[in-house]
Predict the structure.
Amino acid sequence: MTMESNHHLNFLAPQPDRSWLGSWIFSTDHKRIGILYLVAISTFFLVGLCLGLLMRLELIAPGGIIMGPQTYNALFTVHGVIMIFLVVIPSIPAVFGNMILPIQLGAKDVFFPRLNLLSWWLYMFGAGVAVISLFTGGGPPDTGWTFYVPFSTMTKSNTTLSVFGVFILGFSGILTGLNFITTVHRLKPSTTPWMKLPLFTWSLYFTAWIQVLVTPILAITLLLIILERVIGLGLFDPTKGGDPLLYQHLFWIYSHPAVYIMILPAMGVISEIVPVFARKPAFGYRAIVFSGFVIATAGSMVWAHHMFVAGISDTAVMVFSFLTFVVAIPSAIKVFNWTATLYKGSIYLGPPLLYALAFIFLFSLGGLQGLILGSAGTDMHVHDTYFVVGHFHYVVFGGAIFGFFAALHYWLPKMFGRLYNYEWATAALFLKFIGFNLLYFTMLIMGVQGMPRRYYDYLPEFQNLQVISTVGSWILAAGIIMMVINLFYGMRYGEKAGDNPWGGATLEWTVSSPPPAENFEGEPVLTRSPYDFKDIKAPHAE
Amino acid sequence: MQNDSVGSRLGMWLFLFTELMLFGGLFLLYAVYSNRYPAEFSRASKELSTIMGSLNTVVLLTSSLFVVLAVAGIRNNKPRHTVAFLLATIACAGIFLGVKSVEWSEKYHHGLFPNTPTLLAKPKGEIVFFNLYFTITGLHAIHIIIGAIVLGIITWSVYSGKTSSNDYVSLENSGLYWHLVDLIWIYIFPLFYLVVP
Ligand SMILES: [Cu+2]
């Protein structure tokens, strides 16, 4: 077999010159790396899910049920660390950014393919360190995912190692971001105008900038925690002249923009799905691009809304509260644009669109709750209660992860060339939607009633709502398992998807499914706008 | 796509940018604390040797010049010059680290080191000053070591002919990295050695 003919094979085909394992874990093909991330991230997602279910089970009745309070502390910490740093932050960029971005752009690969592989190895190394920290030293970390000082510098649990794991994961994210920015700038065909880039590409581009901008701040903050624990440095220790509040500032300078690292790519996915399933150009393309830019910049200036009760000045509270309201505007613009795209479209309610609609509903609710927390007055009441936990999950789970689910249903047929069962996909979504709202809406109510977050025990008056919430977690988990089975089965045995099952107009739908090893045979030519569906058939969306 | 030196340089600039942000977090802490403890900061600063600091500044500026000459050498197709200037740069890195370790160990012998009883007996502002000093110069020294290793690899690559006048973007990029390390020192030096009351 000559090298030439090798290029026409699809990227999943076995590579006879390498061992099976080597052809994956040492592959520099962006699509294979995307699948490596998909496997790793899905695995960690299921682990995080199990930890969440255990917590909910513990809370089904007051007092100890299946674990002690220290185990509970470790559970909510590890659940948070896994879900945030190992799952949600890398999720869409690492999986679908890798799989789709170069093809959408018209490139053969990312700009630095070997660096891309290194990013995955760093991810696995960081994840490994984080996992080892659970079983060694003083046991799993119990600080909460925010690693707040002074507790994180004093606790006997194995916090140093888990912080170091997160530090390495940060590097992995920085390198992926750097790679994507360079890819978009240098591998965009010169014939493609910027304002004809698909919206998913745009969202990844802005996300990459945020990642490159703020992740180093997290890195240095975590390094200071490690130094404080190991050599007693004390830059956040008041007895040594330090100020613990500065830890919170540095942490949120990273971690608020991190919310946009999580949500912007999901918004990109939705912006891609909605026009395709409404057979209409995206309404307000420029407004969607511009609002992505505003989110990326303004979102970096609102961090102190996490610190309204931490002892910052009244002026600071007012300024940050105001800016928080400002940053809600571009998100709202996107929601209006999606609904306007649907308006008078010829809509096909296929699974990807249903997931996108679930995203829009849950994310809008989450965003509105964010304004309650962003207003200083109401925040005083609900700060550190279940309301925050509920809001957070509406945005990050209902937003980022539902966006990830939508992307799975939209792009997996492209990557594997086969379709899943629509009825199962819809039923799974229905289960998840019901379970999700039972699980988290009850948290909002409990929060308003004063149930504090991170408590192992609670007063009897919360019993009913806690039970509903736990039952919701079971329904949600059932829906997720159903989705996983359906996707797995579909990717192996499903009906052949064809090159363009949904009738998309972006470049990834012009290549075969699965795509060939080098994406395009010859130079791809852009013949139409990304959302111009004239004369495109949608064989599986009719 | 490997031959697109503009892209490689763009990637490098983005990386340098993240390095600046990394130190930026520490400089932010410096700004807040020096604002809170101005008198202590200027008193503690007197304990650092301005002569040693100036010496290291001169050493690093010279090394940056050597890097520029090394790049110019390969551009003019004179790889031997490049190798010589790169070795001179690495020597400068060695001198810098030598001076730094003299400074550090002298402080250490006076009991001035994070979490020592002597340091903790001082006023809070001075404790913070020395904690910042050791953190920032320590992180910077690690960058010097990494930079020297990278330059060493590049020297070998030029010597063996792998990096030549046809393709020397890796040399340019390591040069950029060295300039950044130098630039950060240009900020560190006045912030710690030249604090005026
Ligand atoms: Cu925030």
